[in-house]
Amino acid sequence: MNGADALIETLVANEVTACFANPGTSEMQFVSALDRQPAMRPVLCLFEGVATGAADGYGRMAGKPACTLLHLGPGYGNGLANLHNARRGFTPIVNVIGDHATYHRQYDAPLNSDIPTIVGPNSLWVKSADSPETVAAITAEAVAASYGPPGGPVSLILPADSAWLETTTKPAKAQIPVRAAPSADAVDTTAKALKAAAKPVLLLGSQATSAAALTQASRLAAAGYRVLTDTFIARQPRGAGIFQPGRMQYFGEAALADLAGVDLMIYVGTVIPVAFFAYPDRPSVLVPEGCETLTLSTRQEDSVAALTALADALGAPASGPVQPLKVAEASPTGQLTPQSAGASIARHLPEGAVICDDSVTSGGGVAVPCGTAQPHDVLALTGGAIGIGMPLAIGAGVAAPASKIVSLNGDGAGMYTVQSLWTMARENLDVTVVVFANHSYRILNIEMGRTGAGNPGPSASKLLDLGSPKIDWVSLAKGLGLPAMRCTTAEEFDDAFARAMNEPGPKFIEAAI
User: Fold this and answer.
1) Could you report the per-residue pLDDT of 171-190, keeping only the tens digit for each?
2) CB 491: neighbour CB atoms within 10 A?
3) If pLDDT is split at 50, 70 and 90, which confidence band does 278 have?
4) Strands 153-159 and 66-71, how do they pair?
5) Sign of the CA dihedral 276, 215, 351, 429?
6) pLDDT at residue 121 greater than cutoff 90
7) Which of 95, 118, 454, 463 has the greatest number of CB atoms lying within 10 Å of its CB?
8) Is the distance from CB of 65 to CB of 405 less than 8 angstroms?
């Protein structure tokens, strides 16, 4: 056994059994070791941003980390944007980053870089296994660190000689951390404050939006308390039979208008809400003036236990409101819009599906009708770095092969990680990709006015328009191995999406809106 074997054996011993990879020369020992451990599933991604986003999707669905295999500092750099999203989503990921042999670093070869510094900002933990004897123990430490709580990406640097040299060490077992229950004082203080407040609201984030947590939050809603979630949630159940809280509005002025008069805000698995961006003459903090704030549970604590204890302390009903099953009976007709596409998605979405949402300005048209569709999970864009919708779907498809995976994307966002389509085809994942093609960075057109930068002129428009030339999505998808079609009417989209939900395997639909 060599160091690469020790690493993979330790990962598998700790239930890390999926590897999303874009390897290079320094990682060849790891690649070779995969043949000796069939429990590890290797998934080739043609761009590191696909690998890291796929690991994010896997972690959100599996509740445990996948690993990535990245080629030195530049390879990690290519995957950084989606690791930023994973950090914001608190997704456990073990990044294995190959490095030059320890004795070769001193010569500053062309690919040499300061890997610890590069990976530090988006890693909860960073270590280099500089000898084969340390690999197993450090790998187990990495797995444990990825769980947090609340969890996130970690970075294990594997020098080439640590991978190829022999070792007699055995796989090490990780000590997985357990979330602490919130204090009795926090529960008691929150209950008293809620009873005394005139217009309170509870704000949920991270673990507080899990299925178990929402069941307890519904009890609080039944007792008369308003419940909201953060704007962007890593994973949240949605649809019939599920409690659906309100959502913190994206635009700051809309959020404050929605919160007008609120005198108490309780944080459950989250922190103070802030505007996504700063704007001239608009506030950054989205808490009404004069509103008191309290924390029931931190992101590190057990929010399910916290909500249960709070509901009990308030004498809340044993159950609360849930969404009905209500979808359009007939196919939408006429012009294809996000709203008509959303109605069709809600009509045909099967129970247990997973929606990976990076649809940007088109997303609202889908979210509303899907609120009463068959129960499903939604994986959202947590860190604002677009280009995650397709990679998330790869990871979700690997983690949940029995579920229909639907990837919703803006056309600008989709081009960031279009290589994902090839991996979906290669792995024969049951993923339906929808790209809403408006041939524009529409969100930037909106934001340009909001920032006070004025209306775009000829030069500015060149940076906001995707229509010259128009991207031929169907040709792109077919070239990367997926059956694909373009829909221009509501009827065409309804038929295409229905067939995609009833046939196995990857599909691509361009929604020309």
Assistant:
1) 999 999 999 999 999 999 99
2) 16
3) confident
4) unpaired
5) positive
6) yes
7) 95
8) no
- Per the structure, the complete domain to which residue 18 belongs is given by 3-164
Please indicate, yes or no, whether residues 143 and 265 belong to a single structural domain of this protein. Answer: no
Average pLDDT of the chain to the nearest whole number: 96
Among 274-283, 302-311, 451-460, the range scoring the smallest mean pLDDT is: 451-460
Which residue's entry shows tokens 């990535």?
68
DSSP E strand stretches across 119-231: 126-128, 153-159, 200-204, 226-229
271 phi/psi in degrees, rounded to 5: -130, -175
Q: Which pairing describes strands 18-21 and 41-44: parallel, antiparallel, or unpaired?
A: parallel
pLDDT band at 442 (very low <50, low <70, confident <90, very high): low
Distance CA 345, CA 509 (A): 12
Considering the domain architecture, whether residues 377 and 433 belong to the same structural domain is answered as yes
Together in a domain, 352 and 461: yes
Beta-bridged to residue 323, according to DSSP, are 240
- Three-state DSSP at 376 gives strand
Within 13 Å, how many C-alpha atoms sit on residue 188's CB side?
3
Q: What is the CATH number of the domain that holds 425?
A: 3.40.50.970
Q: Is residue 386 within 8 Å of 337, Cβ to Cβ?
A: no
Give the start-end residues of each E strand in 310-463: 354-358, 376-379, 405-410, 431-437
pTM above 0.85, yes or no: yes
